[in-house]
From TrEMBL:
GO terms for molecular function: glyoxylate reductase (NADH) activity. It comes from the Bacteria. Belongs to the D-isomer specific 2-hydroxyacid dehydrogenase family. Signal peptide: none annotated. It is an enzyme of class 1 (oxidoreductase). It holds the Pfam family 2-Hacid_dh. This is Glyoxylate reductase. The keyword Oxidoreductase applies.
Length: 326
C-alpha cells in the first residue's frame, strides 16, 4: 500500500477516498500549518503528499524524499513548490485549476465593489456610533458602473472577472502574455500594452500567477502611471505588487485605494503599514473560500494524488511526466 501525507485536516469523504489506495497520515491542526521539520520527516516516507499553499516545498526539503511520486497542491497557484527541483527527482506536481475560477472571480469583484464604495469603512463607521446624519459627501466613493477596468492576466479568473464587469457596463482593457482572441470576441475586451492599461484604468485587477517574471510587476513606476482616482485589486499573490511602493502611493494619494486578498507574508502581520490605511480593504486570502469550491478543490487534489500514486498521468500535471508514466 502507498503512504500519503496530508498537510491539513480535510473532510472525511476526501480522506476515505485516499485511504482506499493508501495509508494516510494527516496533520490534524486546523489553524496551524505543519512545521517544516515534521514535513521533512513525512516526506522521507511518503509516496504522495497532498499539500496547501501554506507549505513551502523547496529543493532541500525534497532531498530525502526518495519515495515521493507526487506533490498534489490544493490550489491553482503552485509558486510554493520548487517545481524544477521536483522534476529533477521525477516527482509529479499537480494543481487544481478551473474549479475555483468563478468563486475567485466573485471575490475579486466583491473586493472591487467594497473598495470603490467604501463598504467596510462605512460599516465600521456605523457600528462605531459615528453616524449622526446623512450628508452629501459623507463616505462617498467611486462609481463602478461605466468605468474602465484593466485586467492584468487574462486567464481563467481574469476572463471570469471580465464577464462580471460586462454586466456593470465597464469598458474592459487587458494585458496578458498572449492575446485572448476568444475573450475579445465574446466579451469585447480590448488588448493594450501594460503602461496604457495602467494609465487608462479606473480599476486594475492583478490576476497573473506568481513567477520570477511577475515579482513586483506593480512597482513604484507602474503605480505612478495609475490615475489618482484609480483602485488596485490584487487577488493573485502578494509578491506581484511591491507593498512598500503601494503604501507610499496610497499615503501620497497617488492612487485612490487598494483591495488586497493576498500579501507577501501570510498571515500578514497586524502591524503591516497597509493595514493602517482606511482606503485598504484587506482579506485573509479567501479568494476560493466557498464551501462548495473548497470541496471541489479537495476532491480534485485527491484525484490528482491517486492518479499519480497509481502511475497514471494526473489531469492537472504542471511538470513533465516521468518516463514511467504514459
Ligand atoms: N486569492 C485567491 O484565493 C486565489 C488566487 N489565485 C491566483 O490567481 C492566479 C491566476 O489563476 P488562473 O486565472 O486560474 O490562472 P491562468 O493560468 O488561467 O491565468 C493566468 C494568466 O496570466 C497571464 N500572465 C502570466 N504572466 C503574465 C505577465 N507577466 N503579464 C501579463 N499576463 C501574464 C497568463 O498568460 C495567463 O493568461 C493563480 O496563479 C493564483 O496565484 C487563484 C485562485 C484563488
Ligand atoms: O490562492 C489560491 C490558489 O488556488 O492559488
Amino acid at each position: 500500500m502507498y503512504s500519503v501525507f496530508i498537510t491539513r485536516s480535510l473532510p472525511d469523504p476526501i480522506v476515505e477516498k485516499i485511504e482506499q489506495v493508501a495509508k494516510v497520515s494527516m496533520w490534524e491542526e486546523e489553524e496551524v500549518p505543519v512545521p517544516q521539520e515534521r514535513l521533512e520527516k513525512e516526506l522521507e516516507q511518503a509516496d504522495g503528499i497532498l499539500c496547501l499553499l501554506t507549505e513551502t516545498i523547496e529543493e532541500k526539503l525534497l532531498l530525502g524524499a526518495d519515495r515521493l511520486k507526487i506533490i498534489s497542491n490544493m490550489a491553482v497557484g503552485y509558486n510554493n513548490i520548487d517545481v524544477a527541483a521536483a522534476s529533477k527527482k521525477g516527482i509529479m506536481v499537480t494543481n487544481t485549476p478551473g474549479v475555483l475560477t468563478e468563486t475567485t472571480a466573485d471575490l475579486t469583484f466583491a473586493l472591487l465593489m467594497a473598495t470603490a464604495r467604501r463598504i467596510v469603512e462605512s460599516s465600521t463607521y456605523l457600528k462605531n456610533g459615528k453616524w449622526q446624519t446623512w450628508s452629501p459627501f459623507q463616505l462617498t466613493g467611486q462609481d463602478v458602473y461605466g468605468t474602465t477596468l484593466g485586467i492584468i492576466g487574462m486567464g481563467r479568473i481574469g476572463e471570469a472577472v471580465a464577464r462580471r464587469a460586462v454586466g456593470f457596463g465597464m469598458n474592459i482593457l487587458y494585458n496578458n502574455r498572449s492575446r485572448n482572441m476568444e475573450a475579445e470576441k465574446q466579451l469585447g475586451v480590448i488588448y493594450t500594452d501594460f503602461e496604457t492599461l495602467l494609465r487608462q484604468s479606473d480599476f486594475v485587477c492583478v490576476l497573473t500567477p506568481y513567477t520570477p517574471e511577475t515579482r513586483n510587476l506593480i512597482d513604484r513606476e507602474q503605480l505612478s502611471w495609475m490615475k489618482k482616482t484609480a483602485t488596485l485589486i490584487n487577488t493573485s499573490r502578494g509578491g506581484v505588487v511591491n507593498e512598500d511602493a503601494l503604501y507610499e502611493a496610497l499615503v501620497g494619494h497617488k492612487i485612490w485605494a487598494a483591495g488586497l486578498d493576498v500579501f507577501e507574508e501570510e498571515p500578514v502581520p497586524l502591524n503591516h503599514p497597509l493595514l493602517s490605511l482606511p482606503q485598504v480593504v484587506a482579506l485573509p486570502h479567501i479568494g476560493s473560500a466557498s464551501i462548495q469550491t473548497r470541496m471541489r478543490m479537495a476532491e480534485l487534489a485527491a484525484a490528482n494524488l491517486i492518479d499519480g500514486l497509481q502511475g497514471k498521468k494526473p489531469k492537472h500535471l504542471v511538470n513533465p511526466a516521468p518516463s514511467n508514466i504514459e
